[in-house]
Specification:
The protein is an alpha+beta fold. The chain has a domain at 3-104: Aminopeptidase, CATH 3.40.630.30. 28% of the residues lie in helices and 34% in strands. A seven-stranded mixed beta sheet has the order 1-2-3-4-5-7-6, with helices on both faces. The longest helix has 18 residues, at 10-27. The radius of gyration is 15 Å and the shape is globular. 23% of the residues are buried. Mean pLDDT is 87; it is low at 29-40. Keywords: Acyltransferase, Transferase. It comes from Streptomyces tabacisoli. GO terms for molecular function: acyltransferase activity, transferring groups other than amino-acyl groups. Residues 1-148 form the N-acetyltransferase domain.
Length: 148
């Protein structure tokens, strides 16, 4: 069974960004830079999953809350754990924490066409915008969901 933690951990957040950057770079050389640091009014929210076999990071979700919105910045699951529901569990845990501890009413996120727009739709998210060629050759989707 996975071990989960919800404690905000800056080093793991940086690791998660690095791991997702590596995954995205491998999938699409067109991707260049990640977002900058969040506005200081934003509160971080992170959920971690650890592999029961060796304790390594199996997946993680890095987000922030602001103005009754959860903004999922990154969701990453290790290759060997994909397709087993871990991404769903990470997302659900973050949404529940956002509602229960931060009073969030909505969630938003961005994803690229080669990542997971179908995954988020299965979890109740709706596409509100599509940006073609952001970066060139890739579509970026913005999705939102009413929480609670």
């Amino acid at each position: 069974m996975f071990r989960f933690e919800t404690e905000v951990d800056k080093e793991r957040g940086l690791l998660l960004r690095s791991l997702l950057r590596d995954t995205n770079t491998a999938a699409s050389p067109a991707i260049r830079a990640l977002r900058g640091t969040p506005d200081e009014r934003e509160l971080p929210l992170q959920v971690w999953a650890f592999d029961p076999a060796d304790g390594s990071l199996a997946g993680g979700l890095d987000a922030h809350v602001w103005a009754t919105w959860l903004h999922v910045d990154l969701l990453w699951v290790a290759d060997r754990h994909r397709g087993a529901g871990l991404g769903s569990r990470l997302l659900t845990e973050a949404e529940n924490l956002a509602v229960e501890h931060h009073g969030c009413a909505n969630s938003r996120l961005e994803t690229w066409d080669f990542q997971a727009p179908g995954f988020y739709r299965q979890h109740g998210y709706e596409v509100v915008s599509v940006i073609p060629d952001y970066p060139p050759g890739v579509k970026e989707f913005t999705l939102t969901k009413r929480l609670g």
